[in-house]
Amino acid sequence: MNRVVRPDRRRRRIAAATLAAGAGLLGASLSAAPGSRRFYGLTLATAGTWVAGGALSGAFSRAEPSQREPDRRLVPPVAVAGVAFGGFCGGALVARRIPPLGRAVDSALGLAGGGSLPLVLLTTAANGIGEEVFFRGAVFDLAGRRPVVASTATYALVTATTRNPALVLAAAVMGALFGWQRRATGSLRAPTVTHLTWSLLMVTVLPRVLRRPCAGR
């Protein structure tokens, strides 16, 4: 007699396997030389893992737009991204004055500093989309009573494979914000738009903001 596997159990198994694979790829990608073929290959593979695992885990089964708030409006999530970016700019300027945090910030910025800008933007956007599909999609749906807390904690723990405290802190703060957006709108669109806008600002504008402090040290 064939044993029937419940859909939720199957989804959890797929999500667990995706977490293991994605965390491994993320850690490997951040250990590769920025701008190298290996770096771009691993980062794109990480994004693909999040998207595929999220879709197979049912990321789109419940992530429907809420009727209370039209999800087609793009201005609010873009504005949220701008405010978050401003906060991170201020935080980065302060962190640069603390040697351990300053090194972590410099290391994170170095990921965007080498290689082709179009490829950096491509991998940044691909991973932003992939992370939302998996963490605010599948993980959020499978989390139970506290999906924002669970998805944020999972997101931060996976980011810890980079061994960069600045990236882990960013994942914890922004993960909570993305999770709140998912819960408030009932959709993946708002957190995805915010994530993409914030990430692209971080890799294109933040290095310029910090350039003068770097030169003055």
Automatic annotation (TrEMBL):
GO terms for molecular function: metallopeptidase activity. It comes from the Bacteria. This is CPBP family intramembrane metalloprotease. It comes from Nocardioides panacisoli. The keyword Iron does not apply. The keyword Transmembrane applies. Keywords: Hydrolase, Membrane, Metalloprotease, Protease, Transmembrane, Transmembrane helix. Pfam families: Rce1-like. The chain crosses the membrane at residues 42-62, 74-95. Residues 116-200 form the CAAX prenyl protease 2/Lysostaphin resistance protein A-like domain.
